[in-house]
């Protein structure tokens, strides 16, 4: 296949990355908007509501970096760290963590499939 063409695998990666990005964007925007549901969620997790803006900035900045091809790997690293914190926070209060785990996997799988240089750096072996 020509070097300028996009493979099906790259299109699947773009779709997965777009889906993950939309979820993070929605979550970050909801934190910015705030409201009783956000405050209740923070209380349930044992976190001060004053941290909502900080979380929103971290989440939105990380996903924006992830969406830019030149900074996508940095964005994926930051989102993985963010999801690690979310997993720990939910584990601490006894909440299920499957969504956080799946979202973290989708972030990296989407990037892996859409970025040929990453596949060269981390080849899957048979």
Helix content: over 70%
Order of helices and strands: HHHHHH
Count of DSSP helices? 6
Strand coverage percent: under 5%
Overall form = elongated
Quick tags:
elongated, 6 helices, 126 residues, single chain
At a glance:
The chain has 126 residues and is an all-alpha fold. The protein has six helices and no strands.
What does this structure look like?
- This protein is 75% helix and 0% strand.
- It is mainly alpha-helical and 126 residues long.
SSE blueprint:
Blueprint: H1 8-33, H2 36-44, H3 52-67, H4 72-92, H5 98-114, H6 116-121
Helix pairs in contact: 1-3, 1-5, 3-4, 4-5
């Amino acid at each position: 296949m020509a070097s300028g063409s996009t493979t099906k695998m790259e299109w699947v990666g773009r779709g997965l990355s777009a889906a993950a990005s939309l979820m993070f964007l929605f979550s970050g925007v909801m934190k910015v908007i705030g409201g009783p549901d956000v405050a209740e969620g923070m209380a349930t997790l044992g976190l001060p509501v004053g941290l909502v803006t900080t979380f929103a900035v971290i989440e939105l900045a990380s996903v924006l970096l992830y969406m830019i091809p030149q900074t996508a790997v940095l964005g994926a690293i930051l989102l993985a760290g963010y999801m690690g914190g979310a997993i720990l926070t939910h584990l601490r209060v006894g909440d299920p963590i499957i969504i956080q785990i799946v979202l973290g996997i989708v972030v990296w799988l989407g990037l892996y499939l859409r970025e040929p240089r990453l596949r060269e750096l981390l080849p899957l072996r048979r």
